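Hey team,

Filing this mostly as a record. A colleague (T.K.) asked me to run one chain through the structure pipeline before their review meeting, and I want the input and output archived in the tracker in case anyone asks later how it was produced. No errors, nothing strange. Just documentation.

Input sequence:
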Amino acid sequence: MLHKQITGKFLITGIMILFLLVYQTWAQQTEHEKANQNDSVSTQVAVKAGQPEVHHLADLPAPKKSYASDFKPPREFPADFFIPMKTFNTEEGLAMSSILCGFKDHNGILWFGTSGNGVSLYDGQSFTNFNSTNGLIHNLINCITDDSRGNIWFGTYGGISVYDGRSFINYTTAQGLPDNDINKILEDNEGNIWIGTQKGLSLIRASENGQSEMNFINFDRQTGLLADFVLDILQDNNGVLWIATEKGVFKHNPGDEISFSGIFEYAGLDTPIVQTIAEDQKGLLWFGTGSGVIRYDPSEKEKPQHFTTMNGLVNDDVRCSLVDRSGNIWFGTSGGISGFNKRENTFFNLTTDQGLSNNIVCSITEDETGSLWFGTLGGGLCRYDGNYLVGYTANQGIPGTVVYAITADTDGNRWFATNDAGITKNTHPNKDSNNSSFINYSSAQGLPDNYILAMIPDRNGNLWLGSPTGLFKFDGSSFTIYTTNQGLANNYTVSLEKDRQDNLWIGTYEGGVSKFDGTSFTNFTTRQGLTHNTVWDIMEDRAGNIWFATRGGLSIYSDGRFINFTIEQGLPDNKLSSVIQDEQGNILIGTWGAGIAVIRKNIVEEILQ
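Output structure:
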């Protein structure tokens, strides 16, 4: 059962690590983080670029071209149900179709955490998206809560972000957390903050003035906790804390010296893995496990009862739960939604057959109207008002199941690149009309590959697309295909950047970098000084230098030379995912598992002298 839990959890993060992180951009540092930054770095490694490989198109086979007119016309459908969505980065739409958690704050605002593109806030009319470009510490969100002071807490795959309505303050193991993978955050009745991680439980005690001091008191198996992998935390109506782990459920009584006692031996748990806990109006606890649901009476006046698919539960892998305002109990599973009918002791189920957008349900949230929002893995959000299911998916303007890249062309149209449905254009509405539509191009319209990992427009109105099978140029009517046959360094294209000279820089997986000037490809690999041949992100700074975030460190191409940084020069990790320059001229570098590194403006200027 633990294998199922951990496999499910790390499948999400594994996909994110392989691809989604390629396109994340990272947060500007908050004042708290800046205070902990060390500006000192070791001497950088400067390497004069070796003679690059140059491949002229005139000397090689002509690129293949496919005309959209020779294929089926693109699918076009009105955005008649596409909710107007406001974001911080000029794009519109739900942050991502894979929703891992949902939460309603004290003001009735709904927050949805995604598996790789940050958070979507829904105020009843529109979505506002936050991700690492706005200060969020990581874009994979495991849990969300608020505290009594109105702050919103986000537990992520890379630490904790606390949002006060204006800015984010971020915390990682560097500030005392036992682990950066946060599964649950809870404020108890006394204002203490409890944090469940994969490596134990952490406590932030409330100070006498009601403000939490950010001192982490950590518990693991060596300090009294009976299991390290904490999946959920609940405080019941009597103030007792219940902690769900991979080895059962433990409780902590309020007012006692902190200690934890296990209850799984006499709670009737057939499996030790408990993924979610809910308390109903009678004070009964419902444990969602990898093998069904267990109803447990803390007073032990009645025996625990185990519910599985044999009793009508839609699926035995229970991922989330909620007790709504009417006292109904809902369970999100790997096979749909189950609602428990207390009077008849039976389950009412919703699956894709009833209109659910995806059967893997990771979160359930109730809004101010009493409607339930189901967050699914790959199917976006579904809202259920008791009679109808309304889905927020590709049919309402979210293309594909996973969106890897979003960009806008010179005409103001928005383009979405997906992992399975090609590219979709959201046409810019006419000034005199609110109408907008979505036009999808896939292999049916001549797109050589439906799996698009990178996308960027050029000044001539062309759209350049990166895929595992090559580089494509789309001029609105035809696709031109560039591969190694035309001189591309490697067909597996994962990142794209246009410089001020209108050169296209192409980052590949294990093939280095190509610079394309329209007539020839010039290729750079480790033989020419690049620090690694897998290039996840490319950025041109304001001075015209080209920065490469690679799997083996950071490379800067300036004046015909490479300047390389690795952990030996101060990077926290050699595996990099993204690089960006902020408004002040600082360079922010995203890593796979060590947070964000910052090279401040004065250091950048010194490096490039």
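Quick notes for T.K.: Confidence is low (pLDDT under 50) at residues 1-48, 75-93, 208-212, 391-399. The longest helix spans residues 2-18.
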